[in-house]
Design brief:
The protein is of the alpha/beta class and 276 residues long. The protein is built from ten helices and eight strands. A four-stranded parallel β-sheet has the order 2-1-3-4, with helices on both faces. The chain has a four-stranded parallel β-sheet with strand order 6-5-7-8, with helices on both faces. Keywords: Kinase, Nucleotide-binding, Serine/threonine-protein kinase, Transferase.
Length: 276
């Protein structure tokens, strides 16, 4: 065998699983030189034959082929050529079939689907951080959902939960003394959600918040009359926006997020598959 080991990744999907697997294995051999050849999206036996015809017999095949017929054909060709095969996907599938008594669906590309979903979630989380707390009103026009409400109505934590469900969410705190950004009125009203809460509960939440911040004594921030003024202002804003309003007084953050998602898919049913 040459000093450099040729590793051939053959997959009916991206081959990313096999690549990561081999990185883990070869990292244990720091003096080993390797050359990796990647053959993704293999769909036919003819494609396998073309690959096998070009391989040296001292290569190593690492395969992740979910299709049973293709996997059998590849293993058969490798056996005839006396080429070592690491069939990491079939090994795991077979063991799980034995363990559970269930049959695997053996469908190619499922890992790719999971990866896309993961990266969409990461994008949504980064979006939420970028446009949290009204930092940049331009984000409203790029959002799936815009949450608006007075301070301490759980806008940010609800935003983050929705982001983990692949929704791009921006939020804006409502303050009577602050001018509303024009972009807010350019958003589809069905994408805007107003959050309200019982004034007494909000006063208690804000009072606890000031304690954690080390602020002692009376504060306008949790004054009940001030809070009623803020909530009255918020309701006027919601009326102007003609948006959905959710009372979060008795809700957990998860319940609020679930209610928003249900409402969203009622308004945008065509986006259900994209977000799933």
């Amino acid at each position: 065998m040459d000093d450099c080991l040729t590793i051939v990744i053959i997959s009916d999907s991206t081959g990313e699983t096999a690549i990561n697997y081999m990185k883990s294995v070869t990292s244990q051999f720091p003096d080993l030189e390797t050359r990796v050849i990647r053959k993704p999206d293999i769909k036919t036996k003819e494609e396998i034959d073309e690959i096998m015809d070009d391989l040296d017999d001292d290569s190593v095949i690492v395969m992740t082929v979910a299709n049973k017929d293709l996997a059998l054909h590849l293993r058969d060709r490798a056996k005839k050529a006396d080429i070592t095969v690491l069939d990491i996907l079939s090994y795991g599938i077979n063991k799980f079939e034995q363990l559970t008594g269930k049959k695997a669906i053996r469908e190619a590309g499922l890992t790719r689907t999971l990866s896309r979903g993961y990266f969409k979630m990461i994008d949504a989380i980064e979006f939420a951080i970028k446009y949290d707390d009204g930092k940049d009103p331009r984000g409203f026009l790029e959002s799936d959902i815009v949450l608006v409400g007075v301070s301490r109505t759980s806008k940010t934590p609800t935003t983050m939960i929705l982001a983990t469900k692949n929704f791009k969410v921006a939020n804006l705190p409502l303050v009577p003394e602050s001018k509303l950004p024009q972009e807010l009125f350019e958003v589809d009203p069905d994408r805007v959600i107003g959050l309200v809460i019982d004034p007494d509960k909000l006063s208690n939440i804000r009072a606890e918040r000031t304690k954690t911040m080390g602020i002692v004594g009376e504060s306008k921030y949790f004054d009940k009359e001030r809070i009623r003024e803020e909530l009255a202002y918020a309701k006027e804003v919601f009326k102007d926006l003609d948006c959905k309003v959710i009372d979060v007084t008795e809700n957990t953050i998860e319940q609020t997020a679930t209610e928003i998602v249900q409402y969203y898919f009622e308004k945008f049913p065509e986006e259900r598959e994209e977000k799933s």
